[in-house]
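tokens incoming
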């Protein structure tokens, strides 16, 4: 946890150079709770060149003058920024070339970014609470479907408090003007195995950003219906097979008696 301030031109707040392409030396660096201020021209808050698996969390990048990007990246791979804030009124918030950059649960101007090559992913969290209306339900499968209910992206089991957190990709921006929005998402919880109806919520994370979703799974209280299938009669003392189909709103069960 530090405050880093630079005042000269060409003076980045944090500069990591592992060469190009991404090397095996500038790997797995982590930064937490830093405030980075640059006041000179061409002075990025963070400049990553050829690094890999860099992690920034809960940091502030404040660049105030021309050509001073909040985040500048070249040939970086799998770089992740979580809970950050970028303030870059005179330059791009983010400018990158090649590979992949993930911005999670963060404050920045998505329209103020330049991707010369590679992929920039904006991601949010879906904090999901699953109950039967009053009591938390553990071990419930919670799933994320992209573009409403088309593509299954991720599934997790709710914990002992009925909670599951899913990571949702809102948008992917690549070179040129290629932008893919993946909204809306449907968050679904299935309770059939414990006798509860499923429930889901459709969310547009472009509007909500990270958000808490409450899914109440109503209990199946209706009695099952049973149908019997077997021979109407048979010789005295002979064995017969009776098939029973038990059907309720959530499941079908087949039972045979002999």
């Amino acid at each position: 946890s530090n405050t880093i301030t630079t005042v000269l031109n060409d003076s980045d707040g944090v500069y990591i150079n592992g060469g190009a392409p991404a090397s095996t030396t500038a790997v797995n660096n982590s930064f937490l709770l830093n405030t980075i201020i640059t006041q000179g021209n061409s002075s990025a808050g963070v400049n990553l060149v050829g690094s890999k698996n860099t992690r920034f969390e809960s940091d502030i990048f404040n660049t105030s003058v021309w050509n001073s990007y909040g985040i500048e990246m070249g040939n970086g791979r799998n770089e992740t920024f979580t809970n950050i804030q970028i303030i870059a009124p005179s330059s791009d918030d983010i400018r990158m070339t090649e590979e992949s950059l993930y911005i999670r649960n963060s404050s920045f101007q998505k329209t103020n970014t330049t991707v010369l090559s590679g992929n920039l992913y904006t991601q949010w969290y879906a904090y999901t609470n699953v109950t039967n209306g009053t009591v938390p339900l553990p071990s419930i499968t919670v799933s994320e479907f992209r573009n409403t209910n088309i593509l299954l992206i991720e599934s997790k089991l709710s914990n002992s408090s009925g909670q599951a957190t899913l990571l949702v990709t809102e948008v992917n921006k690549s070179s040129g003007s290629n932008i893919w929005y993946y909204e809306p998402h449907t968050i679904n919880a299935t309770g059939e195995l414990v006798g509860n109806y499923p429930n889901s919520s459709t969310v547009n994370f472009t509007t909500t950003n990270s958000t808490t979703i409450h899914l109440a799974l109503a209990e199946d209280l209706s009695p099952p219906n049973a149908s019997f299938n077997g021979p109407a009669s048979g010789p005295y003392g002979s064995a017969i097979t009776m098939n029973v189909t038990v059907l309720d709103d959530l499941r079908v069960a087949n039972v045979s008696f002999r």
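note: The chain has a mean pLDDT of 88.
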